[in-house]
Amino acid sequence: MGEFEISSFSNGSELKAALRRQNFEIILMDFHLGQGRNGVEWVQQLRQSQFIRPSTGIIFITADRLPQTVGQIIDTQPDLFVIKPYNIATLTRGLKHYLSYRSFVKQALDALDNNDAENALRIINQLDSEQTPGRLKNDVVKLHARILFQLGKLLEAKKLYETVLAHSDKVLWAQWGKIKCEYLAGNWSHCRNELSDLMTNSLARDKAFEWLACLCFEQEAWSQAEFYLDHIKISELSVPATRLKSLTYQKQDKVIEGIELLQKKRDYNRSTRERFNEFTVELAEFYLSIAEQQPKTNRDESLSQARRLIGIASRAQVDQQQIQKKDYLLAFAASLEDDHDKVTQILSLEHMDLLSRTDPATLTIAAKTHNAIGNSEKARELLAMAHERNHLVGNLASQTLNEQVLTNAELDMGMAEERSLELNNTGMRLFIGRDYIRAMYYFYQAYQMQPSTAAFGLNLVQCMLESRHANYRSYTVPALLSKLDVGALNNSNRKRLHQLRTQAQAEASFFYAEQTPDNENAQDSAS
């Protein structure tokens, strides 16, 4: 296999510290890493914080054959997964295969590292047009689909996943790849059906319920989201899923249940410092969200609890991202008390503007804090950064919650009109370029933020008609036309609505075919 420079680390924290100074071409990881986070959690965290390059090979080696463990590892889409029983011969064979694949696609991987996905796609297309060795075919297809997905070419990516599934419908990474394409393309009814099929798969069950809950949450079907999350054992809830469930409780005025859930997760993880601290911070943020919604005269208890928890999570903390998050939470708490001097003092700390690895949730807190002391331009910059980073988040529950919190922040700051116009303008540019799927996303977000602006909804309908999407996310064409019809429309928009309805009725067999609203009967498949 050749000579390699090898580094060894006893835990994820040591690896993260090393990644600040150098990059690794391959990372071999076990699932169980002592009392800290497990290997999957570390890979997810390092990817989100951009410590791992797109080209870095991830190899998992574990003796744990539990379905939940195997499912979590597969979810990270490792380049190689070795599970007991194995020996030196099988391990060597697997590593040689990966190195052979890596050499074959090296130029494409280098392009991804240089943020040039278009060039990576050209290289992969060229490799595909040549004779790809049969033993590398699946690996190259996986990379090809990943690049297409990254570029927003969802239909092409979906076709590649379907090609893999046509040979074997049990390939889990291809199943999830197809579901992600359906989700981002707005085909939520198809997405729901395929997730329902995975509920009996022991390797994918919990994640399927988590995704179904996300679909319900985005449609404000809070009780249905709670219903799906109730199918996951509390001890097995991931941090994002726990956060989703606690916010689902809060949306239903079940604040006590939300606090109890987060406290239980802290208790479960007292022996795992990193995870205990994570849930401690989540509980602190939950108390801050309670305080934010209370009258200023009633905030003392919630703010006191939040500060106490932040203090507990900060003990012996050396991770720079976590220290920064802690300080932004303390600054936000001070802003809720109108203590602007304290806010300014904390924000002036040197590390508060080192934002290259800051996660979307912390950026949103930072934006709200700056806005509270009148730094509205800085707040806008931070929100824009949070939106951009959120598209890179791999976990749907985190992405869903971040989107919700971002939208609420923009509404609270009085930026909704400005933001919705930006979203609509982006949608128009994409629509003119015939990039309909991405255009629909921006029209949808603009209309959700400003439903009183009929033009945004009309743009969404027109895009659905042009791209032949009978439904997009929670809307069908007839339902959206009916919703717009009962709204306040000027003469120009009324005329446009009539034209769009006529266009849809000309293909009634497609656009007016009987549709089941995506959020109806949500509980039937899991009952």
TrEMBL record:
Keywords: Phosphoprotein. It holds the Pfam family Response_reg. This is Response regulatory domain-containing protein. Residues 1-99 form the Response regulatory domain. The keyword Phosphoprotein applies. The keyword Phosphoprotein applies. The modification 4-aspartylphosphate is found at residue 30. GO terms for biological process: phosphorelay signal transduction system.
